C-alpha cells in the first residue's frame, strides 16, 4: 500500500518573475503532475523585505489599505495585513524606493512619515503586535518622520519643528516624547529584518545604504553627522541606555528606522524570517510534513545570512524534516547547501541557460523542475 507523501512548500518570491504564492502554486502543480496523490500544503514566506505583506495575506491575514504620506510628501496608498491582534506592516509600501518617480531621489529630505501613519492605522484597527518589515526604504531619516507621525516632536534650538528628512536632524536640539500615541505603550513592535548595521559610522545607515538612495559623498557625510546628532538628542530624551542603541545591530536598518523604533518605540529587533515563520504558523504546518520545499530567485551567499530559505531550512532541520530548494539560479556548492540544512537544490538554469527566458517563463519551468523534485523524492 502506497503512503501519501505530505509536502510543505515554504518558498519566498522569485524576484522579478513570481510572487511567493505563485511559486507555491507552480511547485504544487509540478509535484502533482508526477504524483497526483501528493498532499501539498502551501505556506508562502518572506523575510521582512518586499513581499512580506503578500505572504501574510496568503496565510490568511486580511488586507487593509490606507492613504499615507509618501517619501517625498505625496499621498500614497499603502497596504498592511491584519489577523486578530497582529498586523504585518511593510515599510516599502509607505516609504519605499519603489514609490519614487523613475530616476528621482531625495536622500536628504525623504521621510518615513508614511511608515508611522501605517503603524498608527494598524493600531487603530486593533493590532497589539505590529511586525514591521523594514526593507527597501527611500529614506535616511533615522525613523524621525515615523516618530513625528506617531506624536513625537523634534525641535530645533528655537523650538520650531524640524522639516522632514535626514539632513534636518543636524539642527535637532530637543525631542518631546510626551505626545507619543499612548496606545503604543501596550503595543509590541517587532522589527523584522536581516540587516545588522549600526546607525552611524563606516558601516552605518548613511555610509552603506544612502548611496543606493541617490546620496553623493557630501550627502553621506552630512547625513551621518545628522544621525549622530539625532542619536545623542533622542537617546537623552528616551532614557538611560537609549543612545547606546545607535550602535546595536539593526539600528542602521532602512536608513536608521531601526534606531528610531528601538529608542523611540521600545521595539524588538529580530531576524526577519524567524519572526515571519512564527507569525505565519510555520511550526504547526511543519508537524505533518514529510518534506519541505523552500527557495527563492537566487540561492547564493546572501541566502545564508538570514534569508528566507536558510531560515526555513534551519527550522525544518531542527524538527527532523528534510528540505530541498528550488531557485532561479544556484550559486552555492553542495557543501554550503548541506551546512544550511538543504539536501539538494534545483535551479531553473539547469533547464534553460538563458536567464532572460528563465525570468519570462519562470512558471512553466518551475513546474518542470518540481516534477524532477517529485521523481527524486516522492
Automatic annotation (TrEMBL):
Keyword Transmembrane: no
Keyword annotations from UniProtKB, A to Z: Kinase, Transferase
InterPro entries per record: Glyc_kinase_flavodox-like_fold (IPR018193), Glycerate_kinase (IPR004381), Glycerate_kinase_RE-like (IPR018197), Glycerate_kinase_sf (IPR036129)
Signal peptide range: none
One Pfam family hit: Gly_kinase
GO molecular function: glycerate kinase activity
A biological process from GO: organic acid phosphorylation
Family: Belongs to the glycerate kinase type-1 family.
NCBIfam families: glycerate kinase
Protein name: Glycerate kinase
Organism encoding this protein: Streptomyces lonarensis
